[in-house]
Amino acid sequence: MNKNIFTQSPFCKLLNIQYPIIQGGMAWIADAGLAAAVSNAGGLGLIAAMSLNGEALRGEIRKTKSLTAKPFGVNIMLMSPFAEEVARVVIEEGVQVVTTGAGVPNAYMKGWLDAGIKVFPVAPSAAFAKLMERCGAAGVICEGNEAGGHIGELTTLSLVPQVCDAVQIPVAAAGGIADGRGMAAAFALGARAVQLGTRFLVAKECAIHQNYKDKVLKAGDTATMVTGRRTGHPVRTLKTEFAVNFAQSEADLTLSNEEILKLGSGALRLAAQEGDAQKGSFMAGQIAGLVKKEQTCAEIIQELMMQAEKVGGLFA
Ligand code: TUI
Question: Is the CB of 29 within 6 Å of ligand 1?
Fold first, then answer.
C-alpha cells in the first residue's frame, strides 16, 4: 500500500478532491463553516440538511460557496420533514454531491441523476447497497453501528467487506474511524474512502456548543450507549443523565412509542446549540475515546493521512 492508494485514487478523481476523507453530515451540527473548512483542507465537506427547510438550506449552500471554491456536498436525512423540498433545492443550487441517510432515496434518484449529482446513500446492508448501485448511486457509505447518531445493525468490520464484495461502485467506510489506523483498516477491508463524524465534532471550525466538545474530549471507550431500539430508530449517544433516563422510559411499557419519540425530539438541537447537559442528546460514536484534542480541519486531515500512510506501509 502506498500513498497513491489514498490520494490518487479513482475516488478522489471522481469527486475532484485531494484526500478520500468525507466529513459526516451531522444533523444540527454540519453547517457551511464546517463543510467549507473540510473541503478547503482537501476532503469532502458536507452540509447537513436535516434541520433546515429548503430556503434555509439554500442560504447555507450559498454561504459554503462563498467560503470555498472546492467541491462539497449536502447530506439529506430522509426522515426529515423537509426531505422533499431540500431534495429540490440541491438541484436548483447545482450541488455536486448528495449523501443520504436513514431511509431509501429512490423517489429522488432520477431528479438528482438527471441534474448530474453524484449520490452516495448510506447503505446498512449488502442488499441495500446492490439496490442503490442499480438505481445509479456513484458509491455507498457503509456506516457501522459504532457510529454516532442513527445506526444500522452491522459493525463496520462486518459491513464494509461484505458490501465491497457485493457492488462494483466505491464504498466509503464510516463508524469507528477517527485516526489513520482506522482509515488504513477501512482500506484494507476494501473501502476507497472514509467518513468521520466524531473527530470533526471537536474541529475548531465546528460551531457546536463547547459543552458538547468537552463531553466528547472527556469521553472514554465505553462512554456511549444506544437508545431508541424500541421505536425502530436506534441512536448512539454519549451516556448522559438524559440518555439513561430515556432508556428507562423506553423500558416503561405504559408509555407509547409516540410518547417516547416526543421525549427524544429536539434533544440533539439542545445539545448542539445550547449545550444543555440535562435535556440534550449528545450523539457521538464509540471512537469518541480516541478524540483528545481540538484541531483545525486541516490539522485533522493532515494527521490522518500521515498516520494512514505509515500504517499502510505495513501492507507494502
Ligand atoms: O442518518 C444517520 N445518522 C443520523 S441522522 C440523525 S438525526 C436524528 N435525530 C433525532 C433522532 C434520530 C435521528 C442523527 N444521526 N446515519 C445514516 C444512516 N442511515 N444510518 C443508518 C441508516 C439507514 C438505515 C436504514 C439507511 C437506510 C436504511 O434503510 C432501511 C430501510 O429499508 O428503510
Answer: no
- pLDDT of 232 reads 86
The answer to whether the predicted template modeling score (pTM) of the entire model surpasses 0.85 is: yes
Please indicate whether residue 73, judged by its CB atom, sits closer than 6 Å to ligand 1: no
pLDDT digits (tens, 9 = 90+) for 46-62: 999 998 999 999 999 99
If you average pLDDT over every residue of the chain, what do you get? 94
Q: What is the phi/psi pair of residue 183, to 5°? A: -65, -45
Residues of the chain with pLDDT under 70: 1-8, 313-316
What the block records as the C-alpha cell of 134 is: 442499480
Q: Positive or negative CA dihedral for 225, 230, 231, 234? A: positive
Ligand 1 centroid to 306 CA: how many Å?
Answer: 31
DSSP the chain: --HHHHHSSHHHHHHT-SSSEEE---TTT--HHHHHHHHHTTSBEEEE-TT--HHHHHHHHHHHHHH-SS-EEEEEETTSTTHHHHHHHHHHTT-SEEEEESS--HHHHHHHHHTT-EEEEB-SSHHHHHHHHHTT-S-EEEE-TTSSEE--SS-HHHHHHHHHHH-SS-EEEESS--SHHHHHHHHHTT-SEEEESHHHHTBTT--S-HHHHHHHHH--TT-EEEE-GGGT--EEEE--HHHHHHHHHHH-TTS-HHHHHHHHTTHHHIIIII--TTT---B--GGGGG----B-HHHHHHHHHHHHHHHHGGG-
Q: Distance from the CA of 100 to the center of ligand 1, in angstroms?
A: 9
Best mutation site among 75, 128, 150 for ligand 1, i.e. most ligand atoms within 8 A of its Cβ? Answer: 150
